[in-house]
Amino acid sequence: MIYEVRTYDLKPHSVPEAEKRFGEAYEFRKKLSPLAAFWHTEIGPLNQIIHVWPYKDMAERERIRSEAVSGGNWPPKIGEFIVNMRTEIFIPFPFSPEIKPGKMGPIFEMRTYTHAPGEMPKVVKSWEKALPERVKISPLVAMWYAECGNVNRFVHIWSYPTIEARSEARQKSLATGVWPPSVVAKKEGLPEVKLTAQENKILMPSAFSPLQ
Question: CB–CB of 91/200 below 8 Å?
Answer without folding.
Answer: no
